[in-house]
Amino acid sequence: MRLEKCWFCSSTIYPGHGISFVRNDATVFRFCRGKCHKNFKMKRNPRKVAWTKAYRKLAGKELAEDATFEMEKRRNRPEKYNRDLVGKTIKAIEKVTDIRQKRQDRFYEKRMESARKQQLRADKVQLEKEVHLIKAPAGIRAEREKLKEPVRQADAKRDAMEE
Amino acid sequence: MGGTAPGKRKVGGDHKHRKTWKQQRRGEFQTRHIDQVWEDVRKPPSLVHNGKTGPMGTTAKAELDEDVPGFGKHYCIPCGKYFGTAVALASHEGERPHKRRVKMLHTTARPHNQRDADLAGDMGAPDNGPKLRTGVAAGAAEMAE
């Protein structure tokens, strides 16, 4: 049993899922689901289809180069069964997946940093513009008048003192 | 073309351009994919098409293939199309879609393949372990090293 990667979207294909297409020249194309298969038949280029891993790596949306990626490799030669090796491998897989996930999350956070600030600014602008959807204009005006009262009083005092 | 109904014209085609399931599947299996064409364009043309048989995958094709326009003699490598006559092929090569395709094939990077898909899926380069050296030739090579 082997877990393959989908030719189109690079997701893992578990046993019992997807379709394999074998071409005249004996190259095998494995697809995880009908969506990927149909896109392939349409002759779409995965590098240009936004939801595929190939696109995301090329566009810099995801962590593309990392040492953890070197931990998962394809080997076309069978390994002789060794109980210790199996145990160690399973533990290693868990640890490596954990580290990889953390690194990918960190990459995402960094990428979205400036986006958060932009979002906050956009939210403020929206609030200014569209607060009438939440409160009636008369009510807003009344609130603003109330807020200006202490400022007006402070100004009046200052003017009095200056005089 | 197989699969026509009795009384239907074989030449000219149905105006709704219907294909039978068999025709559709044959079409799917026999078109040359972009990654094959990308390699074809970079090989010497005689290796791809020698004026007798077509490159249709790697299945050995008989000379003068009846199923293909012009018996497979006139083939445009970048476009993967057969033409009925040499004149037809020549006039095709002067056309814009052909020129665009040639330019595209020569300027774009190698098309997506399984190796790219694996790398994008967070795998490393394939590792088949240390090379197994057996036999006299290998032993001689080791000695030379």
From TrEMBL, chain A:
Concerning CDD domains, the annotation shows:
Ribosomal_L24e_L24
Query: Where does it reside?
Result: Nucleus
Checking SUPFAM superfamilies in the record gives:
Glucocorticoid receptor-like (DNA-binding domain)
Q: Where is this region: Disordered?
A: 142-163
The keyword Nucleus is annotated on this UniProt entry: yes
Q: Which PROSITE patterns match?
A: RIBOSOMAL_L24E
Supply the alphabetized keyword list.
Nucleus, Ribosome biogenesis
TRASH domain location = 6-44
Biological processes per GO annotation: ribosomal large subunit biogenesis
Instruction: Supply one GO molecular-function term.
Output: structural constituent of ribosome
Q: Name one GO cellular component term.
A: nucleolus
Q: Kindly give the SMART domains that the UniProt entry links to this protein.
A: TRASH (SM00746)
Check the record and name the InterPro entries matching this protein.
Answer: L24e/L24_sf, Ribosomal_eL24, Ribosomal_eL24-rel_N, Ribosomal_eL24_CS, TRASH_dom
Question: A Pfam family this protein belongs to?
Answer: Ribosomal_L24e
Q: Which family, according to the similarity comment?
A: Belongs to the eukaryotic ribosomal protein eL24 family.
Protein name per UniProt: Putative ribosome biogenesis protein RLP24
Organism, scientific name: Tetrabaena socialis
TrEMBL record, chain B:
Q: Where would I find the C2H2-type domain in this sequence?
A: 74-111
The protein in question is named Zinc finger protein
Do you know which InterPro entries this protein is assigned to? Answer: Matrin/U1-like-C_Znf_C2H2, Znf_C2H2_sf, Znf_C2H2_type
Bias (Basic residues) occurs at 7-24
Query: Would I find Zinc among this entry's keywords?
Result: yes
| Region Disordered: start-end pairs | 1-60, 106-145
Composition bias, Basic and acidic residues: 25-43
Q: Does the keyword Zinc apply?
A: yes
